[in-house]
């Protein structure tokens, strides 16, 4: 579904991704793990069009999206839930969700999908008129995910959805990620919490200082000594 | 009774400041630029209204609409030509450019038609004196005030209920996140300039009808005062610009009523200094919003 071939991405003169190659197949949950500053968010931003690769290809369903404007990439079916949620704090929950469907014209479909989002996240339904900035961190995460789903993505990019959440809520969010996946959306998940990410993922890539250093099936990686030492707390 | 008449004058003047201040505040909200050419868009609007009325022989409402449309296009052109190439430049570069654009418009117009003033015909709107509870108020003031209020209501509707309005608020809060929704940030910024400039154009026509005399440098002082009004209300906040404009108009009128009419222009700047010292975020401003 998504193919990334040997991309280099820069911030000014600083190279953040060095020859990254990866692939995501339809229906998979793929996770990207790596330390702070490894380049995980940079990779997601490159896929969603916020950054342009200097070299290399990004192919989505065989078409190249590697230099396209972010808004046309959303239209093609890739939604990005950015790190830190980035909800529109000055707008209500409902308005945030409406903005998620900004490019859609099918009023009926939008209404149905909004109901689906409220089913998935009942806490948002209770707070429909509340300003997004006054939501708790967990609720903001739910809103950011719901907002992305409103675009009806076929590929959903999630950047550290568990950041700053209590363990119980993290579990809830991960259950919902699985539900979204079962409903037919392909998922690329960036996580610090490697244990948890590997537990729901089909495959994983490990990123270190801008390079993919390891990849494989999630269960293989879970039992690999290297990963255990570096990311799973050493036991 | 004198006092109440002065208050009415102040509110009429204030509604003109408010209409101009809205453009300052909307543009600042979305691109963080103080568009110092905004007062000149107001001036151009005033001239377009003048020619529509005198040359094209139009009445008030069509002249107002033509002025708004011409200014909307003019504002978008200014943004695309002068500001867009500097989107990622330093703020000071953009600010200096804005001052340059302002001088260019003023002197461009003087070059084209000369610096002589014009006078709006005094029969554009009926001039009856209405007697309300013993206070005589001109029907003109009331019409002007109603038009301003209607425009502000339409603006509130556009900003809160329409798709483009929601896009404007989204971009002004977090343009990168807005891009991820599929919002075209460039078009949204253009729309903001169009709306703000249209309001300045309307203010220009209203000003001409109310104060008769117009000339190519007329935008400078009202532009600066409207900027003060925007800061007073809290720059970037739409209701703040409305309240700030009205308040500034009323303060000026009260200063005149108290017999210090020579001070009325100075007062705006005293207000600016006081606000910057004691309430830098403005009346409606929250403390700096934090992004987590
Ligand atoms: N806007 C920017 N300008 C310059 N350098 C940047 C910018 N954003 C990120 N970088 C650098 O690029 C590298 C990769 O950053 P990135 O945000 O992709 O890391 P990450 O893997 O997502 O880390 P984290 O887990 O902390 O979110 C880092 O060295 C970072 O300092
Ligand atoms: Mg990151």
Automatic annotation (TrEMBL), chain A:
GO terms for molecular function: ATP binding; ATP hydrolysis activity; branched-chain amino acid transmembrane transporter activity. CDD domains: ABC_TM1139_LivF_branched (cd03224). It comes from the Bacteria. Keywords: Amino-acid transport, ATP-binding, Nucleotide-binding, Transport. Residues 2-234 form the ABC transporter domain. GO terms for biological process: L-amino acid transport. InterPro entries: AAA+_ATPase (IPR003593), ABC_branched_ATPase_LivF/BraG (IPR030660), ABC_transporter-like_ATP-bd (IPR003439), ABC_transporter-like_CS (IPR017871), BCAA_Transport_ATP-bd_LivF (IPR052156), P-loop_NTPase (IPR027417). Pfam families: ABC_tran. The keyword Transport applies. Belongs to the ABC transporter superfamily. This is ABC transporter ATP-binding protein. It comes from Peribacillus butanolivorans.
Automatic annotation (TrEMBL), chain B:
The keyword Transferase does not apply. It is found in: Cell membrane. Pfam families: BPD_transp_2. The keyword Cell membrane applies. It is a multi-pass membrane protein. GO terms for cellular component: plasma membrane. InterPro entries: ABC_transp_permease, BCAA_transport_permease. It comes from the Bacteria. The chain crosses the membrane at residues 7-30, 50-78, 90-112, 132-159, 191-212, 224-255, 267-284. Belongs to the binding-protein-dependent transport system permease family. LivHM subfamily. This is Branched-chain amino acid ABC transporter permease. It comes from Peribacillus butanolivorans.
């Amino acid at each position: 579904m998504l193919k990334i071939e040997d991309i280099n991405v820069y911030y000014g003169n600083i190279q953040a991704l060095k020859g990254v190659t990866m692939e995501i197949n339809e229906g998979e949950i793929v996770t990207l793990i790596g330390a702070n500053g490894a380049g995980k968010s940079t990779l997601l931003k490159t896929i969603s069009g916020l950054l342009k690769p200097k070299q290399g290809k990004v192919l989505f369903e065989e078409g190249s999206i590697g230099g396209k404007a972010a808004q046309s990439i959303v239209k093609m079916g890739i939604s990005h839930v950015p790190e830190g949620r980035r909800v529109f704090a000055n707008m209500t929950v409902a308005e945030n969700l409406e903005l998620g469907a900004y490019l859609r014209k099918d009023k009926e479909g939008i209404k149905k999908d909004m109901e689906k989002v409220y089913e998935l996240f009942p806490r948002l339904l209770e707070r429909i008129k509340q300003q997004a900035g006054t939501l708790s961190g967990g609720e903001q995460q739910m809103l950011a995910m719901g907002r992305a789903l409103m675009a009806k993505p076929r590929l959903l990019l999630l950047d550290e959805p568990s950041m700053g959440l209590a363990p119980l809520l993290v579990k809830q969010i991960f259950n919902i990620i699985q539900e979204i996946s079962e409903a037919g959306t392909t998922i690329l998940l960036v996580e610090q919490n490697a244990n948890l990410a590997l537990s729901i993922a089909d495959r994983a890539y490990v990123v270190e200082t801008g390079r993919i250093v390891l990849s494989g099936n999630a269960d293989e990686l879970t039992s690999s000594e290297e990963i255990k030492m570096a990311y799973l707390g050493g036991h | 009774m004198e006092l109440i008449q002065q208050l009415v004058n102040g509110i009429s003047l204030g509604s003109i400041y408010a209409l101009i201040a809205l453009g300052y505040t909307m543009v600042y909200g979305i691109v963080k630029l103080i568009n110092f050419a905004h007062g000149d868009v107001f001036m151009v609007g005033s001239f377009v209204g003048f020619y529509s009325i005198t040359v094209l022989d139009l009445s008030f409402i069509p002249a107002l609409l033509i002025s708004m449309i011409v200014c909307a296009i003019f504002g978008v052109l200014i943004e695309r030509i002068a500001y867009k190439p500097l989107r990622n430049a330093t703020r000071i570069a953009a600010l200096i450019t804005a001052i340059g654009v302002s001088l260019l418009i003023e002197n461009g117009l003087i070059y084209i038609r000369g610096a002589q003033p014009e006078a709006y015909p005094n029969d554009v709107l009926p001039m009856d004196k209405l007697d309300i509870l013993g206070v005589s108020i001109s029907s003109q003031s009331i019409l002007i005030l109603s038009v301003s209020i209607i425009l502000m209501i339409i603006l509130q509707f556009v900003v809160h209920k329409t798709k483009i309005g929601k896009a404007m608020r989204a971009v002004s809060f977090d343009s990168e996140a807005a891009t991820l929704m599929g919002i075209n940030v460039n078009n949204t910024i253009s729309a903001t300039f169009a709306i703000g400039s249209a309001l300045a154009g309307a203010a220009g026509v209203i000003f001409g009808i109310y104060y008769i005399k117009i000339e190519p440098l007329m935008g400078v002082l009202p532009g600066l005062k409207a900027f003060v009004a925007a800061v007073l209300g809290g720059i970037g906040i739409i209701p703040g610009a409305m309240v700030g404009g009205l308040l500034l108009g009323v303060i000026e009128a009260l200063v005149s009523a108290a017999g210090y009419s020579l001070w009325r222009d100075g007062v705006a700047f005293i207000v600016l200094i006081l606000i910057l010292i004691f309430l830098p975020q403005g009346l409606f401003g929250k403390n700096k919003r934090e992004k987590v």
